[in-house]
């Protein structure tokens, strides 16, 4: 073991794990959106769970407090759980660069995609176990026997056994996967399987993601959801959305149309003041130009480079493309982000001048999560088309967000995106995510046919409201906790 590894493990043991402090919000706030009947069902379910838990805590653990769908989801669910009177906590682990390089490789393998990276042999497993044990000991400063802990994704799977030995009830939730298991997924599960053996229950986003070796185990399928009241999804006046997009350099304007203002999660007024951390653009898109937007992590599986190449090659004259992701220094558990963004910048610089003028790359700041969310909200609302050309996708919350805003979506028919969109009803699906010609054709068709685009957007909004708002996930999560608490 290297000195760096030893220092990482020692530092994790010296103090409790970092806790993300979240103010409570009553789930009843959702009532104005979901209606009285759904609100009453939710109130009864969380009340029953609260009584069953008594003094036991509900704890979530993942690898980062910001950047990506899991962190956003935990913020909301913990917020509503606390508002329901449940003692809900959220902690994040601490680890070194080799650990996160290993778990990033596991991330790709679980998606069924080959990835170069650290060897998954005995040495890697030993380091993974050591870092996990150290984090578990740190977590046990804040967690008591009988508490319910949900561990999210490969980065924290190694905490299962030490927590179970301490008398903690443990759920492992996997937000990623693929419908078609192959040698890559087999390799990932061979590594993770021994660390997961003692878990009380497992949660996946799709039934197809459940590996064969978990047959007969306690498995739940819970799809992610969005909060319609968050800064990312709450209603936004079109003039405010235009002002925000103009403020961050992705729309030209004469100014004077009002401040780039938004409502924060607590209802207070916020104003976008931060610039993009990085913006590559020859000039902002004109006010009248249709804007095609993809918001994603800078992850090779999101295929931002493929979106750019497809757009540049396609017949989308007059439209502009905005590829938007987080500040690559603000996502601690993703060592690939900087490299992928750099590759996109190189591709952008190599585009012919005419195409480069219509493509824009932006990294949004992460130091204020709600301001970041408001930027994304405004961009999606200003988009003529939202795309998600992922090569693989666990679920795809950016698709859900765009659907909720009534935007027409062009997305790959992979993973959980297929659960959200029926082709031609709620958006358009790309059968082959690498088919750049079909992608450009679908996108150009919606840019040029606003009637069809509006029809798909309306269908998308209705589907998101019915199936993908947070009350549904809170209900399913309550059922999971009741089962595990009764063990």
Concise account of the structure shown:
The chain has helices at residues 3-14, 31-34, 36-53, 69-83, 97-110, 122-139, 160-165, 183-196, 238-247, 304-313, 337-350, 353-356, 369-382, 397-404, 417-420, 436-448, 450-467, 470-485, and strands at residues 58-62, 88-92, 148-152, 169-174, 201-204, 219-221, 261-263, 269-271, 278-280, 291-295, 320-326, 359-364, 385-388, 409-412, 428-430. By secondary structure, it is α/β, with parallel strands linked by helices. The strands form three sheets. The chain has a seven-stranded mixed beta sheet, with helices on both faces. The chain has a six-stranded parallel beta sheet with strand order 2-1-3-4-5-6. A two-stranded antiparallel ribbon has the order 7-8.
Task: Provide an overview of this structure.
There is one protein chain. The chain has 487 residues and is of the alpha/beta class. 44% of the residues lie in helices and 14% in strands. β10, α10 and β11 form a beta-alpha-beta unit. The longest helix has 18 residues. The two termini are 38 Å apart. The model has no long low-confidence stretch (mean pLDDT 93).
């Amino acid at each position: 073991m290297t000195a760096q590894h030893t220092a990482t493990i020692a530092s994790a043991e010296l103090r409790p794990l970092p806790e993300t402090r979240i103010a409570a919000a009553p789930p009843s706030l959702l009532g104005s959106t979901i209606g009285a009947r759904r609100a009453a069902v939710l109130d009864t379910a969380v009340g029953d769970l609260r009584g069953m838990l008594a003094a036991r805590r509900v704890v979530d653990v993942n690898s980062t407090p910001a950047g990506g769908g899991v962190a956003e989801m935990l913020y909301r669910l913990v917020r509503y759980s606390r508002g329901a009177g449940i003692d809900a906590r959220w902690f994040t682990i601490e680890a070194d660069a080799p650990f996160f390089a290993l778990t990033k490789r596991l991330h790709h393998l679980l998606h069924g995609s080959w990835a170069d990276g650290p060897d998954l042999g005995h040495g890697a497993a030993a380091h993974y176990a050591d870092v996990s044990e150290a984090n578990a000991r740190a977590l046990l400063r804040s967690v008591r026997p009988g508490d319910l802990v949900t561990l999210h994704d490969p980065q924290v799977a190694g905490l299962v056994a030490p927590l179970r030995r301490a008398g903690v009830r443990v759920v492992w939730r996997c937000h990623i996967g693929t419908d078609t298991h192959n040698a890559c997924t087999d390799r990932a599960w061979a590594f993770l399987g021994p660390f997961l053996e003692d878990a009380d229950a497992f949660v996946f986003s799709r039934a197809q993601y459940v590996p064969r070796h978990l047959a007969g185990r306690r498995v739940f399928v819970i799809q992610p959801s969005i909060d319609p009241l968050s800064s990312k999804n709450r209603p936004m006046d079109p003039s405010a959305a235009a002002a925000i997009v103009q403020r961050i350099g992705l729309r030209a304007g004469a100014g004077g149309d009002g401040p780039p203002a938004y409502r924060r999660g607590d209802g207070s007024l916020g104003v976008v003041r931060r610039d993009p951390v990085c913006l590559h653009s020859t000039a902002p898109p004109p006010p009248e130009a249709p804007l095609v937007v993809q918001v994603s992590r800078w992850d090779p599986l999101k295929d931002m480079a493929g979106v750019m190449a497809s757009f540049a090659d396609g017949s989308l004259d007059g439209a502009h493309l905005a590829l938007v992701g987080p500040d690559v220094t603000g996502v601690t558990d993703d060592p690939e982000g900087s490299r992928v963004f750099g590759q996109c910048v190189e591709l952008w610089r190599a585009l012919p001048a005419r195409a480069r003028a219509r493509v824009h790359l932006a990294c949004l700041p992460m130091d204020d999560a709600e301001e970041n969310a408001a930027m994304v909200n405004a961009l999606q609302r200003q988009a003529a088309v939202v795309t998600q050309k992922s090569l693989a996708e666990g679920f795809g919350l950016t698709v859900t967000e765009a659907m909720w805003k009534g935007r027409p979506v062009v997305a790959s028919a992979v993973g959980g995106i297929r659960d959200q969109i029926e082709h031609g009803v709620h958006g358009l699906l790309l059968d082959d995510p690498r088919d750049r010609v079909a992608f450009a054709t679908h996108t150009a068709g919606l840019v040029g046919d606003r009637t069809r685009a509006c029809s798909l957007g309306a269908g998308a909004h209705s589907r998101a409201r019915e199936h993908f708002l947070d009350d549904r996930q809170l209900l399913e999560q309550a059922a999971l906790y009741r089962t595990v608490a009764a063990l």
